[in-house]
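for the record, two folds in this file. i put them one after another cuz i was lazy. first one right below, seq on top, structure tokens after. the second one comes after a little note so u can tell where it starts
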Amino acid sequence: GKGGDRGGGKFGGDRGRNRGGGRGGRPGGRGGSGMKGGRKVIIEPHQRLEGIFVARGKEDALVTKNMVPGESVYGEKRISVDDENGSKIEYRIWNPFRSKLGASILGGIENIHIKPGSKVLYLGAASGTTIS
């Protein structure tokens, strides 16, 4: 019939699927932090910035303690680690592609002028994420 079977051939076939990928980012969909459950992760304090930690595992990640364990506000990834007393501590993983503060820390910023106990007024934006 007219139009053929719309399949295969040199120029057609997938009818819009796989048309140059998605909207940027990394291939493979969501996730990919390398901090999957059950893997050995070591949490170390950040060298310069109090209250920020580095999770060392398959891939390193910036993390902060989750003040409300079990809760995820923005769908961020979390990891739980046993402390020396055997109790679990939950950390939120910072995605530097969604956090300007996280990106600046990875970029080597000297001081963020925020530490545990600081009072911060966050005037939020319409999208993106904030610190824990």
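(here's the note) second protein begins now
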Amino acid sequence: MKDINTSNTSTIKIRRFTKQERLESKLSVELKNILIGLALGDLNIEKPSRTGHARLRFAQGLVHEEYLLHLFEKVRPYCRAVPYFPKTLHNVTGKFYPSIRFNTCTFACFDELYDLFYPEGKKILPLNIGELLTPVGLAYCPSELGPTGAVNQMLKILHFISSLSLIDRAT
């Protein structure tokens, strides 16, 4: 194992995960709820190959460094490397901006989230989002509201709130 220390993150051990670890890892209830909330925003869940497992990709502008480092601490057990800080080309302005990014390794425990949000390879809103989204997930969802997706995100939140209202009326 190799120690890595950057000025923006604490030291972590870099190591390879065994196939067994990738297959048997489980998400805590809290982390699963957080990831569901994040998946309603900018969190990208991908499968690098059709036969492999899913991984999580996190990216934000450097102005959100503290927030992304908080998320890194949540998923740190699934990561091999520390966040990195590339300059990213903005599609609208054509300018480069500093950003912060990191990925998890591929794990079987991420497959369920991939299947929920990307059933045919394209991101969707799961039909059962009212059952999936918890107060913890909802707390992370607004953090993901960006200027381009704010209206869609608010509709998702309103859907969640209305489903809670229906449950309250039924009881």
